[in-house]
Amino acid sequence: MVLVRTKLWYFVFTGFAINTMLKSSINFTIIAMVKSHGHKNIPPENDTTLEPHNSTDFTTQGITLSKIIHFIDKEMSYNWNAKEQGVILGSIYWLQWTTGIPSGILVRYWGTKALFGLGSLILAFTTLAIPTVAQYGVQALVGLRVAQGLVAGTMWPAVHHMAAQWIPANERSKFVSAYLGNTMGVALIYPLCGLIISFFPWQYVYYVTGSLGALWCILWLWFVYDSPLQHPTITKDERNHILTSTDFSIDRKRPPIPWRAILTSRPLWINILAQWGGMWGFYTLLTQAPSYFKQVHRLNIQLNGLFSGLPYLFKTAFAYGYAIYTDKLLKSQRIGRTAVRKLATFVCITLQGFLLIGLAFSSTNVSCAVFFLIVATMVHGAVTSGPITSYIDLSPNFASILQGISGTVNVWPGFLSPMLAGYLTYNNQTPDRWQLVFIISGASMIVPGLIHLAFADSRLQPWNEGNSAYQLNKYELKRLKVSKRERSQSKR
């Protein structure tokens, strides 16, 4: 019989995949939306002769499927320069940081089922609206993307809250690997965009992904429950195992949030700093890879979609395999939890930074560029076993709050990175300018990664049980230190 928490893994994985497809479809589709990339202009309103998007005939009467589709939904293109495109791509992150902490608080009362499910439904409907909104100009589209960002900011804190309730301590790395559904979403969306745009107008990318998102939301709201105590079909053995293997206060009154202890926690901020570096590299590759392969390597749209999406398949597989390895290390107790998280963070951030430097010096060698892109993206999969899981290690009771704080800070690379890339490559799409983009990204990862390696701590924090317990733990720690000092003096 399949464990309920295993089923939950699949729901979370597919949920993140769908949501990433909704958010990221424009990263690739913008190539077809912009006139400067060689796509056709809008036919005059009084011109009833519509050129087909391709030459695939489905009848012998000279009528193609593409002609019929063009009558239903004309393919439009827009005069957006590199700066405007950078603003459109990055605008989803402008206000995403504002909803991280509020969602971390709200999910403690509303539950992950409602917050994550309804947020995903809003993303689906706003994605369906992109073709219509784009006709009203850059400002209207940016406004829609900002709204999507507000909703997207609620996702990670919400699922962290669920993970703290459902997953035993030594299974967290494997479960959090489900978050890499967002990587699978990228791996699927780029080839899917290339395939759809090859046969239909670009608008259909948003129609397809938006419909998939709405369908998933219905399944999530129907089958998922917030805790083992609420699930109607979970076995008694599994429920008891979960309840006795977590540090989450699932059967007691919610402990008060120890804000001062959280905001002054050095382990938390070291972890956030490391994730800042990881997010800078992640967003650089996520938003800029299609444009890089188009401008520097002149790949056609099908190959561009393949090479932009393929690395994320490797990343997903690597993340899952590395997570299993990490959980085995923890269960064996051969090395401590902090050492395990440090190793994973070094792989996913510091090592990826060096690989991005390699990508920067690939020049026009497409084989070399693809190699570094695939490996750099792949090793970032260890992030689910490193900084992301560390928030639950530090405090299962307040994991949603910690993740909310992290999201508030680490969303900034999401819009700074594409804006910087747009500025550096504006009217200068040369290998040298793209080299500078990747060098900056690599350095932004290496430095925080090394700081994490030196100073990180992933042990359960004394403030996990709330303010009163934190004060008691501080007193006990002080007493133990005094006792240790007295014993040392007596030996002398």
TrEMBL record:
Tell me the ranges covered by the Major facilitator superfamily (MFS) profile domain, including all copies.
Answer: 13-460
Q: What GO cellular-component annotations does this UniProt entry give? A: membrane
- An individual GO BP term: monoatomic anion transport
Q: How does it sit in the membrane?
A: Multi-pass membrane protein
* Keyword set, alphabetical order: Membrane, Symport, Transmembrane, Transmembrane helix, Transport
The name this protein carries in UniProt is Major facilitator superfamily (MFS) profile domain-containing protein
> What organism, scientifically named, is this protein from?
Bemisia tabaci (Sweetpotato whitefly)
Picking any one GO molecular function of the record gives:
symporter activity
Entry's InterPro entries? MFS, MFS_dom, MFS_Na/Anion_cotransporter, MFS_trans_sf
Which Pfam families does the entry link to? MFS_1 (PF07690)
Compartments, record wording: Membrane
Q: Quick check: keyword Kinase in the entry?
A: no
Where does the protein principally reside?
A: membrane
User: Transmembrane segments in this chain: where?
Assistant: 12-34, 114-134, 140-159, 179-200, 206-225, 306-323, 343-363, 369-392, 404-424, 436-455
